[in-house]
């Protein structure tokens, strides 16, 4: 993204008629967002409204003191991982794409300097952003949520929120994590990469096809997604018969109920992953590690996935990595008990 | 037995047998007919078949329950539909007219929303279906001085709409990443995950529901003439109606709780059965049961074999059901006149 520091009086005068007087009184700058829209921002952004869960996690990581609220309230299990002053921020609802829960008046009352969304940058989302911007007069910036652009989007958000130093640190972390893992995985022979079944839903029979955002992390760490042979797409249902036929080496799930039942269910016992006890429940507090929301929270999931999928190659202890990540991105070191709970499913 | 009834029985028997053979031979896990025969023979004689244990798991743990589940659910929905169409003297009635599906859906959706295990989700769906119809029945009883059938149907529509609103609200509040897809998949209906346990729980409920319909088959026939006429013939309409509603609700709630929402079967199959067996309920019921079993088994076999992923059952019943329904509308103008 290119950021222009064009403090042009002309733009200020022009925008002054459209935007609130408070903003008009300040000096302005113009940026171009991931969809190529030119957006005029106040020079000093103090209050950020994140339009959806992915943007919330990004904003919380880079500029926690400028985040003005969450899109969904924290659940009891998630809350202890986030400092009280952040966890107690109000729930403002989401304003992204389909299924808005935010009341535009509530968003306006929270007086954000900018609305940021982080995810798909299709013409649909660009036009939705444009509409909200016209309706509210608040600049609405879209950032590219894909894995490959993660570092870039972190830096762009740092520019917007005026948190360049922290953004640079986190972006470097993202680059090193993704780059380092890609390099190390490249040295693992094809036949030593496990065939992974990703089971979602209460019965574990919903899975992600090749290229779906759900299995992006699994594919990113070089494992074989067994459902990829069905084609590319999103989340689909499969039958147990199909899973038996795939006979995966490892099962990764996000559902605690399925994680518990699959170990007892006689029908699943013939599967290699179950026989070998290689069933892994992805940690999900305060934000999911492998799947959703698709944001910077998935970085720690990459470390976790390589540890459970390639225990010989990635043999190092996850504890310091998790502690380091939580301090950097979530601004609070987990307690030893919290670390134990997060890493309960990881073989020692 | 008339020629027509004999024809119906033969047709239905052939249909079920064909669907059964196809269902056991087709699936994502490749099992040849000889392996299938080998495993069945080994099971019957208690000997060893020498094949990988997974083959046995697929046949008895996955495909078997699915086939039985499809047969039971098809029978339940078709029988409930046939009973309601006679009871309400209306060809457009389906088993969910009194809100059983909506109630079950509310129960299941709440279970998913509260992240409950599958058994609890199923139990909530079952209880939700029964509760919705009980509510409809109480509302209809409280309203006096109107046509009782009309009041029942109206109350069913209203409670069904309320259920729809609750479902929409829960979907709106649900976690869009984990719960919403699960809710959506549940509402589309599927037998992909039917386990032997599911079938073992649903089967008795279906049989218990079928029994009173069978025992009351003559009275249900008389009821189709109208309440006054029935009373003149010594049939107490209110009592029969209550029993029929209770039986149909029990079956439908059991079906929906393990398969999700599967539409069309309860509306379409009684029409097809009527085409062959005529409107007389004592013949319509067994034919509907047979056709319903065969229809759902056939559609479920398609659902798991047409594409490499599962096709939701509720989607496929509509795709298969619509042309069939239109065809029978053209052919069977006489059956309701």
What does it look like?
The complex is a heterodimer of chains A (348) and B (337). Chain A has 15 helices and 12 strands. Chain A has helices spanning 9-18, 21-25, 53-62, 84-87, 104-109, 123-136, 150-161, 164-186, 216-220, 240-246, 256-264, 272-275, 298-309, 319-330, 336-342, and strands at 3-4, 28-32, 38-42, 48-50, 114-119, 140-144, 195-199, 206-208, 224-225, 235-237, 250-253, 279-281. The model of chain A is unreliable at 1-24 (pLDDT under 50). In chain A, a hairpin with a 5-residue loop joins strand 2 and strand 3. Chain B is mainly α and 337 residues long. Chain B has a single domain (3-336), classed as ABC transporter involved in vitamin B12 uptake, BtuC (Orthogonal Bundle). Chain B has 14 helices and no strands. The interface between A and B is large, with 40 and 37 residues.
Report low-confidence residues of chain B grouped into runs of 5 or more: none
Count of distinct structural domains of chain A: 2
Q: Which class of secondary structure composition applies to the elements of chain A?
A: alpha/beta
- Percent of residues of chain A in beta strands? 5-15%
Most extensive chain interface and residues per partner: A-B, 40 and 37 residues
> How confident overall, as mean pLDDT of chain A?
88
What composes the largest sheet of chain A?
Answer: 4 strands, parallel
The averaged pLDDT of chain B comes out at: 88
What is the distance, rounded to the nearest whole angstrom, between the alpha carbons of the first and last residues of chain B? 24 Å
Coarse structural class of chain B: mainly alpha
Please report the distance between the alpha carbons of the first and last residues of chain A: 42 Å
Helix and strand run of chain B: HHHHHHHHHHHHHH
Number of helical regions of chain A: 15
CATH architecture annotation of chain B: Orthogonal Bundle
User: Sheet with the most strands of chain B?
Assistant: none
CATH topology of the largest domain in chain A: Rossmann fold
CATH architecture classification name of the largest domain in chain A: 3-Layer(aba) Sandwich
The portion of residues assigned to helices of chain B is: over 70%
Q: Total number of β-strand segments of chain B? A: 0
